[in-house]
Amino acid sequence: MISREARRFFVLYIPLITAIFLSIRLIRKHTTTQHPDQQLWTHPTSPKWGSRPNLKDVAVAKHIGTDDGDEGRNIAAAAPAIPQQHEEKPQSPPNPPQMVITQTAPEKLGELLSTDPFQGASQAVPETHVVVSSSGALNLAAAAAKKAPGARNNPFTSLVFGGRTAINPNVLPHPTKQDTYVMVAQEHPPPPDSFGRFTELTCDAAVNGRGELACVTFPVALSIPPTRTKGNACDDPERPALELLQINQGPHDARVFFGPRGEDPLVSYGSNSGFTCFGQWVQDFRVVSRWGEDLDDGQAAMIPVDKTITLADQLFARGTEMQRPFGDGYSPVEKNFFVFWDRDGAMYAHHDMHPRRVLGRLNADGSVGRDLGPDTAPADAACMARYLPALERVSFLSGPGDEDDSVHQSTNSLAITMCKRADAGCKPGPGNTFIATVVQHKRYRGFRSSYEAYVVLFRQEAPFALHAVSRRPLWISGRRRTVLPASVDGGGAGVERAEMFYITSLNWMRRGQGYHGYLDDEILAGFGIEDERPAVLDVRAEDLFQDLGLC
């Protein structure tokens, strides 16, 4: 009798006791206690964007402390694990993929980056370039509020996405919050378990105690569904690497920008194509993000943001592939198209700047009208040849890590009136208002890319002839250059190498400004450093558009 009861006890109660014990251990493992002197700097956030940073969001919280001392280390040490975040679903489109808050590992950002070969290198500006420097506007409010007292000394502002690394950044003013911005960048490298999947991260951000622009809401993925390549467009025996794009999922190299209606941001991105292997797409940014979801009724009355976007009445409510003009062939991989608007608000797509311009009227279904490039081709080619460097071609005997030089489009576009807003006589008109963008001169030698940025202005009325080009390439203050040994560069000893800066986006800094601005307005220029670190430069337009040569 006793042995039967004992067996019954072990069979029924021991598993229950074990389960309770394991549950208690799991609860303790995923729960941390905040030390009284761990007071995190906070910024007002909407519950829809995310709650205030806490120890559960350690990878975000550790980057927004008020000082550079032990606070960040204490936070990281206090959280051995991060609880699984629950999925959240955006309100639109009708059948979107869920906007997932991906778990972020509590690891130090520096450990994810390679050794800095430019540590201690010179920041002297070469005479061949024109320097562009921070206006200080981004850090001015933070410094005045004593949140970032040393931020004014930074040549540019680093971007921090919690413990995650990203490239190709975009920075826009937040639609409602003062001294707050919306950041978008491609996660890079992707997580190890995400083979073939690519993600564009976004979050609300503000300047922290170290002068960085850091997430104050948890970074989430843009809700952009993957697309498929039609047929066998990625099959090319001469370019076997194209086959990898066949399994691609998710967007690449997004550009987020405003149109003439300042409250309607758009996003363009690369994804698998229905016309070639890999194409360029455009979509309403509000559909794939949480833009404007935190507006209350009073704010919505002052800043109109449509929260009920429908496919019937909203341009690009679904991702739409931007086509090339009829009769103009496709490359296997299309990149860096940008959208621009004429003086009357009509929308166009600019496909190529070099070796010949390709551009045309962009329709709501993604189709494009006739190519306007030939209308101004002779004058445009002469202007580009006058100011851009001669492109070197790689000989047949060159190494496998070399390619021909190229010039390609880099950023979105802005409309700029070439006088100051503060001047009483400054009025926008055909003679002083142009479309601005940045192009890059690319060199690829020894398996390493280098980029030099040039501003290009063209007229705002068809056929959009070139107006001006930078006489010298831009040099962002803080960029470094050094002389590397032959073993590092792959060439002869004494080869000089400049840090790779790549400008990806331009947006006006002032909230609600939209597409058009003046020389005394500030621009947020997003750029990447060595394909490892994102940053932004707050630069006055007159500094960015200096030393232009007229066509």
State the domain count. Answer: 1
Helicity range: 10-25%
* N/C terminus separation: 104 Å
In CATH terms, the superfamily is Glycosyl hydrolase domain, family 43
Structural class: alpha+beta
Q: Round the mean pLDDT to the nearest integer and report it.
A: 78
Proportion in β-strands = 25-35%
- Number of DSSP E strands: 27
Helices, by number, come to 10
Provide the CATH top-level class. Answer: Mainly Beta
Secondary-structure map:
Blueprint: H1 2-29, H2 58-61, H3 71-78, E1 130-132, H4 137-144, E2 157-160, E3 166-173, E4 181-187, E5 200-207, E6 213-215, E7 220-221, H5 243-246, E8 252-258, E9 265-272, E10 278-284, H6 285-288, H7 297-302, E11 320-322, E12 338-341, E13 347-352, E14 358-361, H8 377-387, E15 403-409, E16 414-417, E17 433-445, E18 448-459, E19 466-470, E20 474-476, E21 481-484, H9 486-489, E22 495-498, E23 501-508, E24 516-518, E25 522-529, E26 533-540, H10 541-544, E27 548-550
Parallel strand pairs: 1-20, 2-6, 16-24
Antiparallel strand pairs: 2-26, 3-4, 4-5, 5-6, 5-7, 8-9, 9-10, 10-11, 12-13, 13-14, 15-17, 16-17, 17-18, 18-19, 19-27, 21-22, 23-25, 25-26
